[in-house]
Amino acid sequence: MNSFGWKRKSNRNVSADSASAFKEPPVADISDDEEMMSGTTNIFLNLAKKRKAFLLEDNLSKSDSLVKEGVAYAEAERYEEAVRKWDEALCLTPRKSKVHEMKAQVLMELNQMFPAIQSAETAISIDPNWWTAHQTLARAQMGFGQVEMAQKSISRAIHLYPAEKELWDQDLKWIYSLCKEKKQRDYAESNSMSTGPG
């Protein structure tokens, strides 16, 4: 019976100089390799930075096009599609307060007041000095039934931009009249309880 086994080659055909070249590399070659590696690393780092900058620009341009598509859908009263496009845009660039504010307005049109409040609050957290976001938050709070909170939000909007007549003529008067009605209703309820059957 024949058995199979690996035959080991002898080093007869290999010269001593060739064998020693594989045992220890010369010192000069190592420094050359290090220089080559550091140069290569710098090239790759520069390429990575350029690629990252390109991707950021690509994200910004894609986000802008998604925002424009969302605006077109909102103008066509296709509100759910607009919200979807703006959500995609916010995944790419989440720090755009204008998109959050537009989303809040559309969510109010869909009668989704709590998500509208959240979106308006996000817009305010990004840009606290933007009066339009405060106005949108006040309107969403009114839709949710938070009259006192809406009064505070509209007051902030007026404080930030007192020259806007719409804030004074429409929003503040509307909120003030609802606050007055609520106080009268609460007063009437408290009187009816105190003078009730007894």
From TrEMBL:
Spans annotated as Disordered: 1-27
Keyword S-adenosyl-L-methionine (UniProt): no
Ranges of Basic residues composition bias in the record: 1-11
Top-level taxonomic group: Eukaryota
Keywords from the named record: TPR repeat
Keyword Protein biosynthesis on entry: no
TPR repeats: 63-96
Pfam families with a match to the protein in the record: TPR_8 (PF13181)
PROSITE patterns: TPR
Protein name per UniProt: Tetratricopeptide repeat protein 33
Organism: Holothuria leucospilota
